[in-house]
């Protein structure tokens, strides 16, 4: 079952840039889903991602069900741990935090997820996850207890991505962290893009149409934006019919 992944590859082949709107379950009340998802539907967004590094109240399952009522866009889980898995989504980014050396986030939590995943029908997409320094400590750094890669270490970052590709990962995700003050630099995106053949996702701290275009121009195939939509839903107006 590789429908979601093939659609990502096809979009790249056809020169279509992709955008995922990230919904953090802790910040999205269920009764706000309908108006929010309607805005997503009218925008250039191609995917909805659902998840957070650490959830206070686990409403992922209820939210996933509600989201699917209002959209045909693919809903992909972006979970901090196995408790956020639900069969009400279409797919799962099976993230391995390859910028860090915490075994729990490289393989440990993945093993714990298997009993649940075996009962589900999600399209599981192996994804290399690389955390890049952004100026402030983000939730991923705090919770995973790993240090982000330094921005100046462009070569090491691109070698890490290449190693992930050789290990069989199907997507590579450059992450500055949710709410980052400094999105991933264009130089880093370009350097990684020139090393790998798999699709490149970029997220963290992207707050304007200019930031978005910069990430695409540097080589991002799919950009993820969460905070900018949470803080100001009028941001959707900037990206309506952007293609
Ligand atoms: C976080 O990359 C995503 O994992 C999105 O980040 O919330 O800063 O848009 P923002």
From TrEMBL:
PANTHER family: HEPTAPRENYLGLYCERYL PHOSPHATE SYNTHASE, PTHR40029
Binding-site list for Mg(2+): 24, 53
Sequence positions that bind sn-glycerol 1-phosphate: 173-179, 204-205, 226-227
Keywords: Lipid biosynthesis, Lipid metabolism, Magnesium, Metal-binding, Phospholipid biosynthesis, Phospholipid metabolism, Transferase
Coiled coil: none
The name this protein goes by in its record: Geranylgeranylglyceryl phosphate synthase
Family (UniProt): Belongs to the GGGP/HepGP synthase family. Group II subfamily.
E.C. number(s) listed in UniProt: 2.5.1.41
Cofactor(s) the record lists: Mg(2+)
Role according to the record: Prenyltransferase that catalyzes the transfer of the geranylgeranyl moiety of geranylgeranyl diphosphate (GGPP) to the C3 hydroxyl of sn-glycerol-1-phosphate (G1P).
Pfam families tied to this protein: PcrB (PF01884)
Reactions accelerated catalytically: sn-glycerol 1-phosphate + (2E,6E,10E)-geranylgeranyl diphosphate = sn-3-O-(geranylgeranyl)glycerol 1-phosphate + diphosphate
Enzyme class: transferase
InterPro entries named in the record: GGGP/HepGP_synthase_I (IPR039074), GGGP/HepGP_synthase_sf (IPR038597), GGGP_HepGP_synthase (IPR008205), GGGP_synth (IPR010946)
